[in-house]
Amino acid sequence: MTYRYKRVLLKLSGEILAGDGRFGLDYSAVNSICSEIASVARAGVEVAMVVGGGNFIRGAQAVDQGMDRVQADNMGMLATVMNALALQDALERIGTPTRVQTAIESRTIAEPFIRRRALRHLEKGRVVIFAAGVGSPYFSTDTAAALRASEIKADCLLKATKVNGIYDMDPKLFPDARRLRAVSYKDAIEMRLGVMDAAAFSLCMENEMPIVVFNMLERGSLEKLLLEGAEIGSTVCE
Fold this sequence. Notes:
- By secondary structure, the protein is an alpha/beta fold.
- It has helices at residues 14-17, 27-42, 59-64, 69-93, 115-123, 141-151, 185-190, 198-206, 221-226; strands at residues 7-12, 46-51, 98-102, 111-112, 127-131, 156-161, 166-167, 179-180, 182-184, 211-215, 234-237.
């Protein structure tokens, strides 16, 4: 079967894994998300993931409270590893082979990031979860997602959010906010759209990596996008 995107990089925020809460893991949310990922993987789509850690620690908030930025970012990277292991467990419990690769040394619990090994896992139908960002402070997990998507030559970067696309204003604050179905990389950077940081947008633009922003909490959205070719969310492209 032929799909629009054969290989994708799915960027999940830590907040999505917290479900309705603000901290920790909501296991019903984790299981629901993994059920959809498993479904598209079984259908033949090669799925890699980058996961955030905001459900355990927000680096910016820690810095505001006086913590050293490097320490805060290091803690954030460790938080992404916890989330990655939770996702791996949920996926493997429903029969989906999964590998976690980390950008920092965690050899007793996960593989180190090795690009060729990651590509081989994807070719064998395994879901690959990239954790610990890029392994250095000052870089967001959005930037890590853009980097990993480019490294594995993904067909698209899927940015999973709690809203169904990119808006010209915050839809939570402005009821008349207008959803933008397509946005150029340049406009996304100039408009300072909060959905991703400028470094991530710039990296995607440089590597001509399309970005689809969609609502992961809308049941079936990932399957509609990848298996049915539905036009959902917003696309950032050239």
